[in-house]
Design brief:
This protein is α/β, with parallel strands linked by helices. The protein has six helices and 13 strands. It has one domain: Spore Coat Polysaccharide Biosynthesis Protein SpsA, Chain A (Alpha-Beta Complex). The strands form four sheets. It has a seven-stranded mixed beta sheet. Strands 2-3 form a two-stranded antiparallel sheet. The chain has a two-stranded antiparallel ribbon with strand order 7-13.
């Protein structure tokens, strides 16, 4: 199993903290957000990781090295300028991710639950009948309108019941043949919903999108108990 951590965001709403470090290096509970992910993925046995970077990518890649200090193997996928957004970043890194389904994690979120929730890869993605499986959370205060709903058969639907957590499994066929370009994932999700090629499940443990200084304070308060 391989995983990719999306780490190319600028974190403008986290400034001045992110004036000198990229957003995934922001610390919560005395540890960088990306280190939390790496350690929890390692505990799953997922030690082959790909990390993309754009804003202050040299700072990020120097911090990560080859992953050995974390006990994992990290390959980096550098992007120019403001980066390629989520779908573009995955497509550029696709040659590093292999032929099997892979887990993708947003580098600027924190999930307090056990990452064993994410394994094994859902069968519908493993066998290629679906192109992706998303993990959803109850709508947070900053996204009360939500993103999606969930059918009884675990199919992802349009709706307002849940928010995408930033954790998902993808089959490489979802992106094969796509040109590297700056583009988000949402249009892909919309197409897969229409074609019944995407499933989802709901996470139940506390989840944080560390997109602002205020939300970072909330996470630190949570981690301090």
């Amino acid at each position: 199993m391989r995983a990719m951590i999306l780490a190319a965001g600028q974190g403008k709403r986290l400034r001045p903290i992110t004036a000198t470090i990229p957003k995934p290096m922001v610390e919560a509970g005395g540890k960088s957000l990306i280190a939390w992910h790496i350690e929890k993925l390692k505990a799953l046995g997922i030690t082959d990781l790909v990390v993309n970077g754009a804003y202050l990518k040299d700072v990020l890649f120097d911090y990560l090295g080859d992953g050995s200090k974390f006990g994992v193997s990290i390959q980096t996928s550098p992007e120019d300028g403001d980066g390629l957004e989520t779908a573009g970043g995955i497509i550029k890194a696709l040659p590093l991710l292999g032929d099997e389904p892979f887990l993708v994690v947003n580098g600027d979120v924190f999930y307090a639950g056990d990452y064993h929730t994410f394994v094994p890869c859902p069968k519908d993605v493993q066998n290629g009948s679906h192109l992706a499986h998303l993990y959803l959370v109850t709508n947070p205060a900053h996204n009360l309108k939500g993103d999606y709903a969930l059918a009884q058969n675990s199919a992802l639907q349009y709706g307002s019941d849940y928010t995408f957590s930033g954790f998902a499994w993808y089959h490489p066929q979802a992106f094969v043949g796509r040109q590297v370009a700056r583009e988000p994932l949402r249009p892909y999700f919309d197409a897969w919903v229409k074609d019944h090629l995407i499933s989802a499940s709901v996470l139940t443990a506390p989840w944080f999108d560390v997109g602002t200084v205020e939300r970072l304070h909330e996470l630190n308060s949570f981690l301090q108990g």
